[in-house]
């Protein structure tokens, strides 16, 4: 199953790694906000989330960094890029 299908089917957990301020300005309904700088210290939370994790941010850079780190910790995750793209795919 590809990432687009995972998002459309509502499989896993959507995690937005933007700042709290960015998240409060708009986000995917039902997504969880964990800013990129907090990812390493909140690893146990990620381990408890329903996999796969769908990571998003403003354009894909921060979610890419989070994906690289979390993958190294053995967590199944995908960089979905912009939260706007995830939001669009979720609404289809």
How would you portray this structure in words?
The two termini are 17 Å apart. The protein has 92 residues and is α/β, with parallel strands linked by helices. β1, α2 and β2 form a beta-alpha-beta unit. A 4-stranded parallel sheet has the order 2-1-3-4. It contains 5 helices and 4 strands; from the N terminus they run αβαβαβαβα.
- The percentage of residues in β strands lies in 15-25%
Strand order of the largest sheet: 2-1-3-4
Number of strands: 4
General form: globular
- Alpha-carbon Rg, integer: 12 Å
Question: Nutshell version of this structure?
Answer:
The protein is of the alpha/beta class and 92 residues long. 42% of the residues lie in helices and 18% in strands. α1 (3-9) crosses α5 (83-91).
List keywords for this structure.
single chain; 92 residues; alpha/beta; 18% strand
Summarize the SSE layout with pairings.
Layout lengths: L2 H7 L3 E4 L3 H5 L7 E2 L9 H6 L4 E5 L3 H12 L4 E6 H9 L1
Parallel strand pairs: 1-2, 1-3, 3-4
Helix pairs in contact: 1-5
